Protein backbone atom coordinates (compact mmCIF):
# COMPACT_ATOMS: atom_id res chain seq x y z
CA UNK A 1 0.00 0.00 0.00
CA UNK A 2 2.88 2.34 0.94
CA UNK A 3 4.61 1.52 -2.33
CA UNK A 4 1.44 2.36 -4.25
CA UNK A 5 1.14 5.64 -2.35
CA UNK A 6 4.76 6.53 -3.08
CA UNK A 7 4.25 5.59 -6.72
CA UNK A 8 1.14 7.77 -6.83
CA UNK A 9 3.06 10.71 -5.38
CA UNK A 10 5.76 10.22 -7.98
CA UNK A 11 3.06 10.27 -10.69
CA UNK A 12 1.70 13.53 -9.28
CA UNK A 13 5.19 15.01 -9.24
CA UNK A 14 5.66 14.02 -12.85
CA UNK A 15 2.29 15.55 -13.68
CA UNK A 16 3.20 18.82 -11.92
CA UNK A 17 6.51 18.94 -13.79
CA UNK A 18 4.65 18.50 -17.08
CA UNK A 19 2.12 21.20 -16.14
CA UNK A 20 4.90 23.64 -15.21
CA UNK A 21 6.53 23.05 -18.57
CA UNK A 22 3.35 23.99 -20.41
CA UNK A 23 2.54 27.51 -21.50
CA UNK A 24 -0.23 29.33 -19.62
CA UNK A 25 -2.71 29.26 -22.52
CA UNK A 26 -2.24 25.52 -22.89
CA UNK A 27 -3.14 25.09 -19.24
CA UNK A 28 -6.29 27.17 -19.75
CA UNK A 29 -7.28 25.07 -22.75
CA UNK A 30 -6.82 21.87 -20.78
CA UNK A 31 -8.80 23.31 -17.88
CA UNK A 32 -11.67 24.31 -20.16
CA UNK A 33 -11.59 20.89 -21.80
CA UNK A 34 -11.93 19.32 -18.38
CA UNK A 35 -14.88 21.56 -17.50
CA UNK A 36 -16.62 20.79 -20.78
CA UNK A 37 -16.06 17.07 -20.28
CA UNK A 38 -17.43 17.24 -16.72
CA UNK A 39 -20.56 19.11 -17.75
CA UNK A 40 -20.95 17.81 -21.30
CA UNK A 41 -24.40 16.40 -20.59
CA UNK A 42 -25.71 19.75 -19.32
CA UNK A 43 -24.06 21.65 -22.15
CA UNK A 44 -25.54 19.27 -24.70
CA UNK A 45 -29.00 19.80 -23.18
CA UNK A 46 -28.64 23.58 -23.36
CA UNK A 47 -27.66 23.36 -27.02
CA UNK A 48 -30.63 21.09 -27.73
CA UNK A 49 -32.98 23.52 -26.00
CA UNK A 50 -31.56 26.41 -28.00
CA UNK A 51 -32.05 24.59 -31.28
CA UNK A 52 -35.49 23.53 -30.12
CA UNK A 53 -36.44 27.18 -29.57
CA UNK A 54 -35.18 28.00 -33.03
CA UNK A 55 -37.23 25.16 -34.48
CA UNK A 56 -40.35 26.51 -32.76
CA UNK A 57 -39.79 29.90 -34.35
CA UNK A 58 -39.21 28.36 -37.77
CA UNK A 59 -42.27 26.16 -37.39
CA UNK A 60 -44.37 29.18 -36.43
CA UNK A 61 -43.17 31.10 -39.49
CA UNK A 62 -43.89 28.17 -41.79
CA UNK A 63 -47.35 27.81 -40.25
CA UNK A 64 -48.04 31.52 -40.75
CA UNK A 65 -47.19 31.14 -44.43
CA UNK A 66 -49.65 28.24 -44.70
CA UNK A 67 -52.37 30.39 -43.15
CA UNK A 68 -51.56 33.27 -45.48
CA UNK A 69 -51.83 31.00 -48.52
CA UNK A 70 -55.12 29.59 -47.22
CA UNK A 71 -56.52 33.11 -46.81
CA UNK A 72 -55.40 33.94 -50.36
CA UNK A 73 -57.32 30.89 -51.60
CA UNK A 74 -60.37 32.04 -49.63
CA UNK A 75 -60.00 35.48 -51.19
CA UNK A 76 -60.03 34.01 -54.69
CA UNK A 77 -62.84 31.56 -54.03
CA UNK A 78 -65.16 34.25 -52.66
CA UNK A 79 -64.03 36.92 -55.15
CA UNK A 80 -63.57 39.26 -52.18
CA UNK A 81 -61.04 42.03 -51.53
CA UNK A 82 -59.82 41.24 -48.04
CA UNK A 83 -59.67 38.03 -45.98
CA UNK A 84 -58.65 37.84 -42.33
CA UNK A 85 -58.69 36.10 -38.97
CA UNK A 86 -59.62 37.61 -35.61
CA UNK A 87 -58.38 35.75 -32.54
CA UNK A 88 -59.50 36.19 -28.95
CA UNK A 89 -57.09 36.90 -26.11
CA UNK A 90 -56.80 38.69 -22.78
CA UNK A 91 -54.14 41.17 -23.83
CA UNK A 92 -51.27 38.83 -22.98
CA UNK A 93 -52.09 35.24 -23.94
CA UNK A 94 -54.39 33.86 -26.59
CA UNK A 95 -57.76 32.35 -25.88
CA UNK A 96 -57.63 29.13 -23.92
CA UNK A 97 -61.32 28.72 -23.18
CA UNK A 98 -61.35 30.88 -20.06
CA UNK A 99 -60.95 34.39 -21.40
CA UNK A 100 -61.87 36.42 -24.47
CA UNK A 101 -61.84 39.99 -23.27
CA UNK A 102 -60.14 41.22 -26.45
CA UNK A 103 -59.76 40.29 -30.09
CA UNK A 104 -57.14 41.17 -32.69
CA UNK A 105 -56.81 40.89 -36.44
CA UNK A 106 -53.79 38.56 -36.52
CA UNK A 107 -53.84 37.49 -40.16
CA UNK A 108 -54.88 39.43 -43.24
CA UNK A 109 -54.59 39.18 -47.01
CA UNK A 110 -55.71 41.93 -49.38
CA UNK A 111 -55.89 42.46 -53.12
CA UNK A 112 -53.65 44.99 -54.82
CA UNK A 113 -54.91 48.51 -54.19
CA UNK A 114 -56.82 47.56 -51.02
CA UNK A 115 -55.62 49.04 -47.74
CA UNK A 116 -54.72 46.74 -44.86
CA UNK A 117 -56.48 47.06 -41.51
CA UNK A 118 -54.69 44.48 -39.35
CA UNK A 119 -52.37 46.97 -37.64
CA UNK A 120 -55.34 49.11 -36.60
CA UNK A 121 -57.67 46.31 -35.52
CA UNK A 122 -55.70 45.18 -32.47
CA UNK A 123 -56.81 44.67 -28.85
CA UNK A 124 -60.47 45.45 -29.58
CA UNK A 125 -62.61 45.00 -26.43
CA UNK A 126 -65.12 42.27 -27.19
CA UNK A 127 -67.63 44.02 -24.93
CA UNK A 128 -68.00 46.73 -27.60
CA UNK A 129 -68.83 44.23 -30.34
CA UNK A 130 -71.07 41.72 -28.60
CA UNK A 131 -73.90 42.00 -31.14
CA UNK A 132 -71.51 41.56 -34.04
CA UNK A 133 -69.91 38.48 -32.45
CA UNK A 134 -73.36 37.10 -31.66
CA UNK A 135 -74.42 37.53 -35.29
CA UNK A 136 -71.29 35.71 -36.43
CA UNK A 137 -72.03 32.84 -34.05
CA UNK A 138 -75.59 32.64 -35.37
CA UNK A 139 -74.25 32.58 -38.97
CA UNK A 140 -75.98 35.89 -39.66
CA UNK A 141 -72.91 37.89 -40.66
CA UNK A 142 -73.46 37.44 -44.39
CA UNK A 143 -74.40 41.01 -45.26
CA UNK A 144 -74.67 42.13 -48.87
CA UNK A 145 -75.10 45.79 -47.96
CA UNK A 146 -73.74 47.10 -44.67
CA UNK A 147 -76.10 50.08 -44.87
CA UNK A 148 -78.82 47.68 -43.74
CA UNK A 149 -76.99 46.81 -40.51
CA UNK A 150 -78.67 47.86 -37.28
CA UNK A 151 -75.51 47.87 -35.16
CA UNK A 152 -74.38 51.47 -35.60
CA UNK A 153 -70.97 50.97 -34.00
CA UNK A 154 -70.04 48.13 -36.32
CA UNK A 155 -71.62 49.79 -39.34
CA UNK A 156 -69.58 52.95 -38.74
CA UNK A 157 -66.37 50.95 -38.29
CA UNK A 158 -66.98 48.99 -41.51
CA UNK A 159 -67.78 52.17 -43.44
CA UNK A 160 -64.49 53.67 -42.28
CA UNK A 161 -62.76 50.71 -43.88
CA UNK A 162 -64.67 51.24 -47.11
CA UNK A 163 -66.49 47.92 -46.79
CA UNK A 164 -69.59 47.40 -48.94
CA UNK A 165 -70.41 43.81 -47.96
CA UNK A 166 -69.04 41.28 -45.48
CA UNK A 167 -69.09 37.59 -44.59
CA UNK A 168 -67.70 36.21 -41.33
CA UNK A 169 -67.74 32.67 -39.95
CA UNK A 170 -67.05 31.43 -36.42
CA UNK A 171 -64.32 28.91 -35.75
CA UNK A 172 -64.64 26.55 -32.77
CA UNK A 173 -62.02 24.40 -31.11
CA UNK A 174 -62.95 21.85 -28.46
CA UNK A 175 -66.46 23.25 -28.51
CA UNK A 176 -65.32 26.80 -27.67
CA UNK A 177 -65.32 29.90 -29.86
CA UNK A 178 -61.69 30.31 -30.87
CA UNK A 179 -61.57 32.75 -33.79
CA UNK A 180 -63.57 34.63 -36.42
CA UNK A 181 -62.67 34.21 -40.08
CA UNK A 182 -64.08 36.54 -42.70
CA UNK A 183 -63.91 38.36 -46.01
CA UNK A 184 -64.68 41.96 -46.99
CA UNK A 185 -65.95 43.40 -50.23
CA UNK A 186 -64.49 46.85 -50.81
CA UNK A 187 -64.82 47.64 -54.49
CA UNK A 188 -68.27 48.43 -55.76
CA UNK A 189 -69.88 45.30 -57.15
CA UNK A 190 -73.30 44.52 -58.47
CA UNK A 191 -75.64 43.29 -55.76
CA UNK A 192 -76.32 40.20 -57.84
CA UNK A 193 -72.62 39.22 -57.78
CA UNK A 194 -72.42 39.42 -53.98
CA UNK A 195 -75.80 37.76 -53.55
CA UNK A 196 -74.58 34.87 -55.66
CA UNK A 197 -72.15 33.93 -52.91
CA UNK A 198 -73.92 35.07 -49.77
CA UNK A 199 -77.59 34.30 -50.19
CA UNK A 200 -78.70 32.66 -53.40
CA UNK A 201 -76.40 29.65 -53.40
CA UNK A 202 -76.47 27.67 -50.19
CA UNK A 203 -73.70 25.40 -51.46
CA UNK A 204 -71.26 28.31 -51.80
CA UNK A 205 -72.10 29.50 -48.31
CA UNK A 206 -71.47 26.03 -46.91
CA UNK A 207 -68.18 25.88 -48.78
CA UNK A 208 -67.19 29.17 -47.16
CA UNK A 209 -67.96 27.79 -43.70
CA UNK A 210 -66.02 24.63 -44.48
CA UNK A 211 -63.03 26.59 -45.76
CA UNK A 212 -63.10 28.78 -42.64
CA UNK A 213 -63.00 25.63 -40.50
CA UNK A 214 -59.97 24.34 -42.43
CA UNK A 215 -58.15 27.66 -42.03
CA UNK A 216 -58.94 27.75 -38.32
CA UNK A 217 -57.43 24.30 -37.87
CA UNK A 218 -54.09 25.76 -39.01
CA UNK A 219 -53.94 28.12 -36.04
CA UNK A 220 -51.44 27.14 -33.35
Outline the biggest β-sheet: 6 strands, antiparallel
Strand order across the biggest sheet? 3-2-1-6-5-4
The backbone outline, from C-alpha atoms, is elongated
Helix content: 40-55%
Uncertain segments: 2-9
The helix-strand sequence is HHHEEEHEHEEHH
Determine the CATH superfamily of the largest domain: GAF domain
Binned strand content: 15-25%
Count of separate DSSP helical elements: 7
How many beta-strand elements?
6
How many domain modules?
2
Distance between the termini: 67 Å
CATH class value of the largest domain: Alpha Beta
Rounded mean pLDDT is 79
Please tell me how large the radius of gyration is. 31 Å
CATH level 3 topology of the largest domain: Beta-Lactamase
Protein structure class: alpha+beta
CATH architecture of the largest domain: 2-Layer Sandwich
Structural write-up:
With 220 residues, this protein is α+β, with helices and mostly antiparallel strands. It folds into two domains: 2-38; 57-216, GAF domain (Beta-Lactamase, 2-Layer Sandwich), CATH 3.30.450.40. It has helices at 2-21, 24-38, 40-78, 130-137, 152-160, 191-200, 202-216, and strands spanning 82-89, 102-110, 124-125, 142-143, 165-173, 176-185. The protein has a six-stranded antiparallel β-sheet, with helices on both faces. A hairpin with a 2-residue loop joins strand 5 (165-173) and strand 6. Helix 3 packs antiparallel against helix 7 (202-216).
List keywords for this structure.
single chain, 220 residues, alpha+beta, Beta-Lactamase, 2 domains, six-stranded antiparallel beta sheet, 7 helices, 6 strands, 53% helix, elongated, disordered N terminus
